Amino acid sequence: MKILVTGANGQLGNEMKNVLEKECPGITLYTDIQELDLLDAQAVELFVLKNEITHIVNCAAYTAVDRAEEDKALCAAVNIDAVKNLANAADAVGAKIIHISTDYVFDGTAHRPYKESDKVNPMSQYGTTKRTGETALIALAPESIIIRTSWLYSPYGNNFVKTMIRLGKERSQLKVVCDQVGTPTYAKDLAKAIYVILMSHQWVEGIYHFSNEGACSWYDFTKSIHRIAGIKTCEVLPIPTEDYPTAATRPAYSILNKSKIKATYGLEIPYWEESLQECINRLEITE
What's the number of domains the chain is made of? Predict the structure, then answer.
């Protein structure tokens, strides 16, 4: 087995490094734009062939949701064209792909957790390109595994948890949207799930959903972040989405049903607040 992890400098990519270097050192190559330009189809195929890659974990993506509404070309290139290049390279050598997608493929009008088979209807450029990337991958490499996730955070890079901690220390008051509901996902938990799939005796292609257990609003999430981080000097106020306009439309409801991935790969998924506690503990250690 020889694994390629793309987007290795991102939140999930860094957590994949931690898991794979601990559990099976020496069998994984980690790349980001500096080492491998995923938009260069020839370079991607040559890299995969030369390094005898058997499995690709694609963590690379354009994830700046609001900026994507203006930067449409680059968003499409990274979320669609790069995926096609990886799929073609994998097909050339018989490698398998685990590709990370998003809850933004849904419009957020549901009233029960979304199943993998539910109708998609992305409402933003980001969501649209991620869905197109899914369909392109399935067409070119039908044995691939696609994992949709939501509200990803980690000790690495920029994310909601780190931003709310910083703002909580800087400001006396924060207004946070209370009518968008979903589930935070600790990137370390997702990385562990991907590791289980990679090492499993079975490979069951298709789309899966993964997030932590439970649900909350962005307001609830912020309140928990501040409580766990010990921030007591910042008042957090709930506001409706209409009072916080953004360039991209976000799903009002994006809770994911995880029954399929739990049943197929025997996963036990932690509750979101327990994982948040661990992440904040890690952040405090590194500060």
Answer: 1
Interval 40-68 mean pLDDT: 96
Supply the DSSP symbol for 53: -
Kindly state whether residue 239 falls inside one of the protein's structural domains.
no
**pLDDT digits 0-9 by tens, 211-222:** 999 999 999 999
CATH number of the domain to which 265 belongs: 3.40.50.720
Token pair for 32: 């980001």
Amino acid at 238: P
Residue 184 main-chain phi, psi, to 5 deg: -65, 150
Average of pLDDT values for 198-213?
A: 96
Angle at 65 between CA 11 and CA 146, to 5 degrees: 60
Which ranges of the chain does DSSP label H, i.e. alpha helix? 11-23, 41-50, 72-76, 82-93, 125-140, 160-170, 187-199, 218-229, 259-265, 272-286
| Arithmetic mean of pLDDT, 262-286 | 94
Please identify every residue annotated as catalytic: 126
* CA–CA distance, 51 with 83 (Å, rounded to integer): 19
Is residue 175 assigned to a domain? no
User: Which residues are CB-neighbours of 27 under 8 A, at least 6 positions away?
Assistant: 1, 2, 3, 20
Flag whether the pTM goes above 0.90: yes
Count of alpha carbons within 13 Å of 22, Cβ hemisphere only? 10
In a domain, 32, yes or no: yes
**Which residue, chain included where needed, has tokens 């500060």?**
287
Which residues form the domain of 129? Answer: 3-153+186-211+256-269
Torsion of CA 115, 132, 179, 247, to 10 degrees: 180
Residue type, 220: D
In a domain, 241, yes or no: no
**Backbone CA torsion sign across 130, 62, 99, 183:** negative
Which of 155, 269, 287 is closest to 215 using CA atoms? 269
